[in-house]
Specification:
Shape: globular
Largest sheet: 6 strands, mixed
Number of strands: 6
Strand order of the largest sheet: 1-2-3-5-4-6
Helix content: 25-40%
Order of helices and strands: HEEEHEEHE
Distance between the termini: 53 Å
Length: about 130
């Protein structure tokens, strides 16, 4: 299906020119990274404005009311914004490096029943802060 908006067409062209599958909007290799990439949502082509985070980072940021009892990996689809449709992904990993980003892009592109809201999956991870 062809790109539907001028912004999407330009973004696809920019990615092709760079030779990269995503655009990094923050440094990569730490507990959190923000990237943009293309995909599909609700039967339409979109630009994802994604924030990928380790579960330890999520715990520290108190992004979940369940943090006291542990966290599960999650995908949270938000609303469209100026940089694309917002997406938060919490992962049980030590850092958000390039292989993690690439696997996450594949996961989002393959997720057939993705809808707005939070999707939790996998086992609960107990996180303990060091004192």
């Amino acid at each position: 299906m062809p790109p539907s908006s001028p912004e999407l067409k330009k973004f696809i062209k920019d990615l092709e020119k760079s030779g990269e599958p995503y655009e990094a909007l923050s440094p990569i290799g730490g507990p959190q990274a923000r990237v943009r990439f293309t995909g599909r949502f609700a039967e339409a082509d979109v630009i994802w404005d994604a924030e990928l985070m380790t579960l330890a980072y999520c715990y520290g940021q108190q992004l979940s009311n369940t943090a006291r009892n542990g966290l599960r990996q999650f995908i949270e689809v938000g609303t469209p914004g100026p940089a694309g449709r917002r997406l938060k992904i919490g992962l049980a990993t030590a850092c958000i490096d390039e292989p993690t980003i690439l696997k996450s892009i594949v996961m989002i592109r393959r997720y057939k029943r993705l809808h707005a809201g939070r999707h939790e999956y996998g086992e609960v991870y107990e996180l303990r802060l060091r004192s």
